Amino acid sequence: MAASPHRRTRRTSIALAAAGTVLAAGLAAGCSAVDKALDCMQTAHSVADDITDLQFEAAHAVVNPDRADASLDDIDKDLKEITDKTDNADVHKAADDLDKAVDNVRTAIKNGDRTPDLSPARDAAGELTKVCSP
């Protein structure tokens, strides 16, 4: 016995509603992933800017160590922001590597190093940018 046209329309409506819900959830998840990637890229860009500032401030740290500390603090803040916003293991690894490099620069400046080696911090910032890129 064939289903009545009313019953077929109702089943079709229910199936379409269910498909719409699944599609909307998939799009929302996709947008969420895009949003996370954009957040990651924006913060990685901010970290790169902080590293550029740090290069200048580290060169003048003997004259004004507080400014170098402020640059290092900015990097710490951005690293916290980026790790709080993602659960990506590669991002966390790159952020941890950069955090260690920043700690080494901070220690070198406190110990009176007038030209601390910033290459590990630059390399780690580059890696962070790379893992944040889509």
Short key terms for the protein model shown above:
mainly alpha; 134 residues; elongated
Q: Can you walk through the features of this model?
A:
- The structure is a single chain.
- This protein has 134 residues and is mainly alpha-helical.
- The protein is 84% helix and 0% strand.
- It contains four helices and no strands.
- Helix 1 packs antiparallel against helix 2, helix 1 packs antiparallel against helix 4 (119-132) and helix 2 packs antiparallel against helix 3.
- The longest helix is centred in the N-terminal third of the chain and has 55 residues, at 5-59.
- It is elongated.
- 24% of the residues are buried.
Layout of SSEs?
Layout: H1 5-59, H2 65-85, H3 89-110, H4 119-132
Structure, briefly:
With 134 residues, the chain is mainly alpha-helical.
Distance between the termini: 54 Å
Which term fits the overall shape? elongated
Give the beta-strand count. Answer: 0
Q: What integer is the average pLDDT?
A: 75
Helix content: over 70%
Largest sheet: none
Q: SSE order, as H and E? A: HHHH
User: Structural class of the helix and strand makeup?
Assistant: mainly alpha
Number of H- or I-type helical stretches: 4
* Poorly predicted ranges: 6-30
The gyration radius over C-alpha positions equals 24 Å
**Percent of sequence in beta strands:** under 5%
